[in-house]
């Protein structure tokens, strides 16, 4: 897989994480499937620290449910590792605050990307952020 393909897979995960609703998400997944990319997304929300484990679990469950990965230790660990990497990029902004958003997961061949979109809330002041992780499985 060349650098352009890895970049496209990362872009696909980010676009899924930013999709505004289930219809847009479904259309994007169909478009990506035509290009040989398996993809899925999952919503989440809650206090950041208590949500970390739930976000990682939802990413792995969604990827297995939608056939993006097989039910193997390597594949599940790849998704979990990429999700934790994405979460760690945003942690300094989100610790102690409520977060909500979507996880986007895209895979082609041995490469998988996990993008996490965060809306980080404090009263009526909101911040937004995206974390991205990549693994080869």
From TrEMBL:
<keyword id="KW-0805">Transcription regulation</keyword>
<keyword id="KW-0694">RNA-binding</keyword>
<protein>
    <recommendedName>
        <fullName>Hut operon positive regulatory protein</fullName>
    </recommendedName>
</protein>
<comment type="function">
    <text>Antiterminator that binds to cis-acting regulatory sequences on the mRNA in the presence of histidine, thereby suppressing transcription termination and activating the hut operon for histidine utilization.</text>
</comment>
<keyword id="KW-0010">Activator</keyword>
<keyword id="KW-0804">Transcription</keyword>
<comment type="subunit">
    <text>Homohexamer.</text>
</comment>
<comment type="similarity">
    <text>Belongs to the HutP family.</text>
</comment>
<dbReference type="GO" id="GO:0003723">
    <property type="term" value="F:RNA binding"/>
</dbReference>
<dbReference type="InterPro" id="IPR036482">
    <property type="entry name" value="Regulatory_HutP_sf"/>
</dbReference>
<dbReference type="Pfam" id="PF09021">
    <property type="entry name" value="HutP"/>
</dbReference>
<dbReference type="InterPro" id="IPR015111">
    <property type="entry name" value="Regulatory_HutP"/>
</dbReference>
């Amino acid at each position: 897989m060349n650098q352009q393909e890895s970049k496209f897979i990362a872009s696909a995960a980010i676009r899924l994480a930013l999709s505004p609703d289930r219809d847009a998400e479904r259309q994007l997944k169909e478009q990506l499937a035509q290009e040989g990319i398996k993809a899925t997304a999952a919503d989440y929300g809650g206090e950041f620290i208590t949500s970390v484990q739930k976000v990682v679990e939802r990413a792995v469950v969604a990827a297995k449910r939608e056939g993006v990965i097989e039910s193997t230790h390597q594949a599940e660990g790849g998704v979990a590792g990429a999700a934790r990497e994405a979460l760690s990029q945003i942690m300094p902004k989100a610790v102690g605050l409520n977060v909500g958003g979507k996880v986007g997961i895209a895979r082609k061949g041995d490469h998988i990307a996990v993008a996490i979109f965060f809306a980080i809330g404090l009263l009526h002041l909101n911040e937004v952020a995206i974390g991205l992780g990549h693994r080869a499985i």
